[in-house]
Design a protein that fits this description.
The structure holds two protein chains of two kinds. By secondary structure, chain A is of the alpha+beta class. Chain A is built from six helices and 13 strands. Chain B has one domain (about 20-510): Up-down Bundle (Cytochrome C Oxidase, Chain A), CATH 1.20.210.
Chain lengths: ~325, ~525
């Protein structure tokens, strides 16, 4: 369960929450005192009780005092905010590296041994450094329970780090608006004990496709896992990309290098559309929205996807 | 608009025109008619923008699809932002009350360049048409958010160019109005009105005008670069073409943060006019308010980076922007202290504009104080791009500017229309609106701290409770709004004619002229020999 009140979800929580409490506490105090004064003055000096106003043009001493007071206070609050932030800038030397890859509208996490997942799995009590890679537009990796957020900017090398102190599951959101399915672009963070993590980590079978279900169902799993269904429907509706319904084995009008042609949507075509989506663009759709899934889906998985498409024809 | 009870010395400006019907309005160079043209345009757009806002809140009533698809939702929040920011709050008080009241407040017959003033309105309408038309052209409504962040704005297949061009054109309207006001304030003050005898609303318009003049060109250039990139594939911002998306954010916020002060400064000015009148008391710390106005206008240029704490700036840049952001809180705080001190020992006339003014101070304090959370680095990282930010800027921009606008229109209504609104309905409308406003936006602070990102069509179940309360608040607030607007529109035509040219016993110059004013405002240009709020 995601929660905001676990003080040891990450090593930053305590520090950041302290800043929240100081600033919000001060703000409440300020708001209550001033509102009280305001209401009291309105009540006390209303026209029926106080028919003649007392003219006061100002009070230099008082004005200097509150300006100075405000100055000291905001500088103090700045330092509080800075102190709470500073640890986020300094990545520890022993941090474990994971590459976080964002594309519309999916997160993937690439581990040093080549393992790739759609949820972020990390060991407890271990500093983790994420190298942030955005493939298309700006995304932002946000784990509320950890109090961390960093934008993922295409073309710019960035990183972020955190250390979770508590095993469990947490939510991870994309916080920078990135188009149609922005609000569905989220993932899970799983914090495992060291031994559970090691066992998980060495298991590099790429996708755990269950063998006890029909191939077309496995194909659907593969597509859900890779976020395909965010842009393609199976019911004939048009989203960002064309629907899967009635594609396989039918003629499709595509643009290839500026030239319109008819092609047969066979296994080769499907495979090419996954690995090199920019080469044939279905008429009426835009180039450049889908990126290549080369290295993300295996030939075996493409086979399962084709089984699913065939299944839709029935 | 002949006033039955008051004998007029000169005919009202409504009754003097060489032209008939609508031409008397759209070809008029009279600052009062132009102010009203802006008022009617802004009101119409505001009703559209408010309906869009309500639709969004209804969509968020429950997780998943409630009343619209994600694509529609993304288009709706984009249009809501474009309309509210570019068509309403940026022109806002300067365009309406600046035009109508500035010349009268400084004892002038009109602004310095009346024809340029009318041109600004035409440019505004042209920009507005472009922005709104983008919704109906092929390609579909733009879905980038009002910030048009690169490189998404280059990738989207929707109709982004007309919206960007619309914003570009609107900028010129803003620049021309700013220029006009600066010259007017420098050259056309009545004899004897030295800078330190000028009322505070003109002072804030002056600070605002400089921001409009100096900062708006930056957004113009940025938007042109965007157009150039989209049409000619010049790589300014898109990394695929060798550009830098962060550069876009810098350029965008170099304008758009000062633009927040374009919105809020005149609002502060209006409050500084309303409070002395209803407290029957001179403003506390006149000079401090002027200095804080100029300080906000100046420091406001240098704080844009606080929109980008998670974009990946260097540590030094982060600290500098954070500390500057905190510094800009000081003059805002000083103003609040001065306003509260102004009502101390006053003789308070509890009327509708006063209710709006004090509720302005309350919501502005909440908006300002939550700004400290966003200025502090540690907390900003957590709540950046969440509903916390949405709540914060609605407290400032809608709470601040909106409440001040409402206060100002109730305050100057008898002067502008020569009639009075129904006071009971005005107060009932205010109360319902105020309650609805707090119910709508306060839960969003909670949602943000709990981690709900903004611009979310759908959300996880843990965010449901806060969203329900917020959506109900939206419904209440809209009810209040309907009462307020109906009352004002009805009263402008059928309200009781005012019994006095100075119903609130105000001391500034607009209360010395007739209601509504004559074409040239003053029969004789007044000679000023005392401060603006002289109740001795």
């Amino acid at each position: 369960m995601y929660s905001v009140d676990k003080l040891d979800a990450s090593s930053f929580v305590e520090g950041v929450d302290r800043v929240f409490i100081i600033i919000l506490g001060f703000s409440f105090l300020f708001l209550i005192v001033l509102t009280f004064l305001m209401v009291w003055f309105i009540f006390k000096y209303r026209k029926s009780k106080h028919p003649k106003a007392v003219q006061i043009e100002g009070n230099t001493k008082l004005e200097i005092a509150w300006t100075g007071g405000a100055f000291i206070l905001v500088i103090a609050l700045f330092f509080v905010g800075w102190a709470g932030y500073k640890p986020m800038l300094n990545v520890p030397d022993d941090a474990m590296k994971i590459t976080a890859i964002a594309r519309m509208w999916q997160f993937n996490f690439l581990y040093e041994n080549g393992k790739m997942t759609d949820s972020l799995v990390i060991p407890v009590d271990q500093a983790v450094e994420l190298d942030l890679v955005a493939l298309d537009v700006i995304h932002s990796l946000y784990i509320p329970a950890f109090r961390v957020k960093e934008d993922m900017v295409p073309g710019i090398e960035k990183n972020m780090w955190f250390k979770s102190l508590r095993e469990g599951g947490y939510d991870l959101f994309c916080a920078e608006y990135c188009g149609l399915e922005h609000s569905f672009m989220n993932a899970r963070v799983r914090v495992l004990s060291d031994s559970a993590y090691q066992a998980w980590y060495v298991d590099t079978t790429k996708v755990e496709i269950p063998t006890d279900i029909p191939a077309w169902q496995a194909g659907l799993r593969v597509m859900q896992k890779n976020g395909c269904v965010a842009c393609h429907t199976s019911d004939g509706n048009k989203l960002v990309g064309p629907t899967y319904l009635g594609v396989y084995g039918h003629m499709v009008e595509v643009e290839t290098g500026g030239r319109t042609r008819q092609v047969m949507a066979d296994s080769m075509y499907i495979r090419n559309s996954i690995l090199d989506p920019g080469s044939d663009i279905v008429k009426g759709y835009n180039k450049g929205l889908m990126l290549s899934y080369e290295g993300l889906v295996s030939d075996e998985e493409i086979g399962l996807i084709i089984e699913y498409l065939k299944h839709l024809n029935n | 608009m002949i006033n039955a009870k008051l004998e007029r010395r000169e005919p009202s400006f409504y009754d003097v025109s060489e032209r008939k019907g609508i031409l008397a309005w759209i070809l008029s160079t009279d600052h009062k008619r132009i102010g009203l043209l802006y008022l009617y345009s802004i009101m119409s757009f505001f009703i559209i923008g408010a309906i869009l806002g309500l639709l969004m809140k209804l969509e968020l009533l429950a997780p998943g699809k409630t009343i619209m698809e994600a694509k529609t939702y993304n288009g709706v929040f984009t249009l809501h932002g474009i309309i509210m920011i570019f068509l309403i709050v940026i022109p806002g008080l300067p365009a309406v009350f600046g035009n109508f009241m500035l010349p009268i407040l400084i004892g002038a017959k009109d602004v310095a360049f009346p024809r340029l003033n009318l041109l600004s309105w035409y440019i505004y309408i042209f920009g507005a048409i472009l922005a709104v038309a983008s919704q109906f052209m092929s390609g579909g409504p733009p879905d980038t958010g009002w910030t048009f962040y690169a490189p998404y704005s280059f990738k989207t297949t929707t109709n982004m160019l007309p919206a960007v061009l619309g914003a570009f054109v609107l900028g010129f309207s803003s620049i021309l109005t700013g220029l006009n006001f600066i010259v007017t304030i420098h050259r056309m003050r009545a004899p004897g009105m030295t800078w330190l005898k000028m009322p505070l609303f003109p002072w804030t318009l002056y600070g605002t005008a400089w921001i409009q003049l100096l900062a708006t060109p930056v957004i113009g250039i940025t938007l042109l670069m965007t157009v150039g990139e989209r049409i000619f594939n010049i790589g300014f911002f898109d990394p695929a073409l060798g550009g830098d998306p962060i550069l876009y954010q810098h350029l965008f916020w170099i304008y758009s943060h000062p633009a927040v002060y374009v919105m809020i400064l005149p609002a502060m000015g209006a409050i500084s006019e309303i409070l002395p009148t209803f407290a029957q008391k001179t403003i506390f710390g006149y000079k401090a308010i002027i200095i804080s106005t100029l300080a906000i206008a100046f420091v406001g240029y240098f704080v844009w980076g606080h929109h980008m704490f998670t974009s990946g700036m260097s540590g030094v840049a982060l600290y500098v922007f954070s500390i500057l952001t905190f510094l800009v809180a000081i003059p805002s705080g000083v103003k609040v202290f001065n306003w509260i001190s102004t009502i101390y020992k006053g003789s308070i006339n509890l009327k509708t504009p006063f209710y709006w003014a004090v509720s302005f101070i309350f919501v502005f304090m909440i908006g300002g104080l939550t700004g400290l959370v966003l200025g502090a680095l540690a907390t900003d990282v957590h709540v950046h791009d969440t509903h916390f930010v949405v709540a914060h800027f609605h407290f400032i921009v809608f709470g601040g500017v909106g409440f001040a606008f409402m206060g100002a229109i109730h305050y100057w209504f008898p002067k502008m229309f020569g009639r009075m609104y129904e006071e009971t309905w005005a107060n009932v409308g205010w109360l319902i609106f105020f309650i609805g406003f707090l119910t709508l936006y306060l839960p969003m602070f909670y949602l943000g701290i709990a981690g709900m990102p903004r611009r979310y069509f759908d959300y996880l179940p843990q965010f449901h409770g806060g969203n329900i309360i917020s959506s109900l608040g939206a419904i209440v607030m809209i009810m209040g709004l309907v009462i307020i607007i109906t009352n004002l529109v009805r009263s402008a035509k059928f309200g009781n004619p005012v019994e006095s040219d100075n119903p609130w016993n105000g001391k500034t110059l607009e209360w010395t002229v007739e209601s509504p004013p004559s074409l040239e405002n003053f029969e004789e240009i007044p000679i000023i020999d005392k401060g603006p709020y002289d109740y001795e």
